[in-house]
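Just scan this pair:

***
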Amino acid sequence: MDDTMDLRQIFNIILRRLWIIILVTVVATLSSGIISYFVLEDIYQASTTLMVSKTRDDQTTNLQYNDILLNQKLVKTYSEVAKSNRVLEKVVEKLELDMSVDALRSKVQVNSVADTEIIRISVEDQDPVFAAELANSIAVVFMGEIGGIMKMDNVQFIDMAKVPKSPIKPRPMLNIAVAAVLGIMVSLFAIFLIEQFDNTIKMPQDIEQRLGLPVLGSVP
């Protein structure tokens, strides 16, 4: 019976202050929608993929399992080289970019696809054309630098970056959904916090619960 009363009290508290939940949730979702659609700028992502394989002078022999393992290990090393100062400085110089190497690095992501010999170079920028051009330029410079560093010519293009048609950020619907959930959670926390510090007696049951006294009658 006590559990039933507790659940009923929780329901009554929520119902009594439902306007707070509605108000906070509506404000949160509207704010998120306005920011996502009208404030945040679109971010585009362009990616180019490279493959670490045998050198071009060694394509006649059969590919062995050990060669695959070696290439997979080289992928991690190559991924670090692709975003190194040595590569990015030459990209800045080649494209005559008005930005620092650190600013350029913040736009670039170099990932090795798990358990493969593939490297993916991704660039995020507000300009989709520039994002594609930058991704391809980094790949070209990287391939040239690998030849000088490792004395090997074992990186080849799989796909060159193309100009993206749609942005990856922001995601208005996802932002609005997250804002709605957070709005509900914050408002629920707020109303229970208010209820916790509210010592006023509103119903006859409050006298029995808080004072431990029976209610003999009430004046409507």
Observations:
- The mean pLDDT is 85.
- The CA atoms of residues 110 and 121 lie 5 Å apart.
- DSSP finds eight helices and four strands in the chain.
- Helices lie at 2-16, 18-39, 65-82, 85-95, 101-105, 128-150, 172-197, 204-211.
